Amino acid sequence: MDGKVAVLTGTKKIEVKKLPVPEINDDEMLVKVEGCGVCGTDVFEYKSDPFNYIPVNLGHEGTGEIVKMGKNVKNDWTGKTLKIGDKIVCGPAANGDIYGLMGGEKHYFNGWLANYMVINPNSVVFNVSDMPLDLRILIEPAAVSCHAVAKSKEIYTFKHSSSVVVQGVGPIGLMVIAQMKTLGVRHIIAVDGNASRLELAKKIGATATVNIDDGDSVAAVKELTDGKGANFVFQCTGSTKGASTAWKFLTDHGGICEVGFFVDNGEATYNPHFDVCMPETKITGSWAYVPEDWVEATEFLRETKDEGLDMTQLITNVYPLDQMNEAMAKNMSGTGVKIVYKNNQ
């Protein structure tokens, strides 16, 4: 059987290759891909290959249906039974490698930008057959935000009365806003320069928005918090200017979680005296996720559905496999939110 894989063969050049689908062994699974989100990490790799993965079959926010199973594959990571026809999502491979970020021809069909994908032995797999496709596509970015919230809870106790700023309302920031909403936080301020994303932030839980293009964002946050500043800030942009500004939003004894820099975008600045020591600011960072965050992400997304928060609004643009260059361009334009591939075959 032949399959198709979207391969990054050079910077800003994805080609769809028709290749034989690998035979699976007793510890592997073959999945028919149903959909996959385009992540900012995919775009960084697409633009300049900073990880030296080319040629690489990208895509790590995917989901699909099991069509073949090795005889030794029995359960998902939580112990739930797996069978042909089940819908799954997948975290890292057993060695820690991320699907869709494994370079070289031997890893074609190890990325979700394909119509079939091989799941390697002992991978972190979750059976999510009860969830619709669009929510399943959002599980991986939700796991990123769940990890950020979990790390933040180590340094700050969120209360109904807490004032929380989320700076940067791309997919991760929007997920964080929805999580704050489900935790019962009543004062959530979204900060961004994209008016349409700020409108979406309101729909999924933000109680106020600040457009950085309208003037002094720090003054605006202070005004929204009765001159005090926010109790907690999630810094979700990849902007060094944004990272430098985030400290200024805080009140004394506040906390900040830096979750925006998955790649090196340069140096940011802060004043150790005024930003950290004197106000006794608590600080944490968040990097990707652990398997437990995927479990939390599925429960969080189920809860948003129960509470009437339509997280599928994050999916703004859908592309077929042969239009991945266009999908990357759309992502880079900043005019969509979550750009996704859906398998139309």
UniProtKB/TrEMBL annotation:
Pfam families per UniProt: ADH_N, ADH_zinc_N
The Alcohol dehydrogenase-like C-terminal domain, residue ranges: 171-301
PROSITE patterns: ADH_ZINC
Cofactor(s) needed: Zn(2+)
Keyword tags: Metal-binding, Oxidoreductase, Zinc
Family named by the database record: Belongs to the zinc-containing alcohol dehydrogenase family.
Protein name: Enoyl reductase (ER) domain-containing protein
Species in which this protein is naturally found: Oenococcus oeni AWRIB429
